[in-house]
Fold this protein.
Amino acid sequence: MRFLAPRIFLAALTLFAAACSSQRPLPKYQKPIARARVQTVRTTAYTHTEDDHVRYSNRNALGGCLKCGPIHSAAADWSRWPAGTVFRIRETGQVFEVDDYGWALAGTNTIDLYKPSRAAMNAWGVRRVTIDNLRWGDPHRSLAILRQRMKHRHIRRMVDALEDRMAELSRPVEVAAPTFASTAPAGPTIDETARPPVTARRQPTISGQVGVVVSNTRPAVTPNPFFGSTSTR
């Protein structure tokens, strides 16, 4: 009997924890931001030794290890940034891949960045950054993975959003190249090879004969206001 009491207590504690988890409110829903090559987003940080992640150790939601190297792991709502999305933070130059998710991220526009230690996590804090989306993840693969875990409410929220937005998420994000039209007025056309016609002037009569002298002298040119009063072009 004395060994039964601790077991009953542990069972009751487990049921209480499960009940609390089922009553845990989901984060406030936020309208998804527009999908684009460049986005401004709110970011937080997490590490594998946090209380709500310690049971998963250093594993991500895809079954692999959380990454910290040339490419870092990140967690997000997969209906906004599907699993496999790769982005670069402009302010730091670091590259991240979405391979994780979390309760507090479902239905929000926040991205949680993985850090290898609590010190690095606390140093990051909460920051609003600009990201370049280098590659969008596969929404179909994300949906297939999440459908196997539907017992959790935050996952059901992501599944519902993925199903509603599948057509949008399946379209490529098009970025129009900027075009610049010249608005400068056209200047006057100047023919550098133009020469005034050769003119002939009549020579005074000498001994009853009239002679003609060919002159190569160019006539005076009226100053062109476009080039200034000193131009002779």
In short: Residues 42-170 form a domain with the Barwin-like endoglucanases fold (CATH 2.40.40.10). The first strand starts at residue 38 and ends at 46.
